[in-house]
Amino acid sequence: MVRDQAIEVETKSRSQANAADPLQVGAPIGGIVSVLAASVGAKVVKGDRLATVEAMKMLTTVYAPVSGVVAEVPVAVGDSVQAKDLLVRLQAG
Questions:
Q1: C or N terminus of the chain, fewer CB within 10 Å?
Q2: What is the C-alpha to C-alpha distance for residues 10 and 64, in angstroms, rounded to an integer?
Q3: What is the pLDDT of residue 10?
Q4: Does residue 3 lie within any of the structural domains?
């Protein structure tokens, strides 16, 4: 085998959710984001669905741990995520 030096591998690093901060919602498992129910500026109540992550034909729904306003959604539908990658950042409100 000969390594092709012309090929560049592009890796995308994602910020990790801080488990101690309830306003940062991370992916519970690695997989692909199949549904985003949250958008920036939307008000959410504790227990509202934020996103769904699919791994090996198994769907895992991510719910809001606290009430607040969606401040950031750094992922899009179809993105590949690892466990603990930041899915949604909330702000108190």
A1: N
A2: 32
A3: 66
A4: no
| CA 6, chain centre distance (Å) | 32
Structure tokens, 26: 């991370």
Q: Is 48 part of a structural domain of the chain?
A: yes
Q: Is residue 10 part of a domain?
A: no
Distance of alpha carbon 82 from alpha carbon 63, whole angstroms: 17
- Please give the biggest Cα pair distance in the chain: 57
Does pTM top 0.70 for this prediction?
A: yes
Structure tokens given for 38: 């949250």
Residues 18-67 pLDDT 10s: 989 999 999 999 999 999 999 999 999 999 999 999 999 899 999 999 99
> Cβ distance 32 to 77 under 8 Å?
no
pLDDT for residue 9: 64
Query: What's 39's domain CATH number?
Result: 2.40.50.100
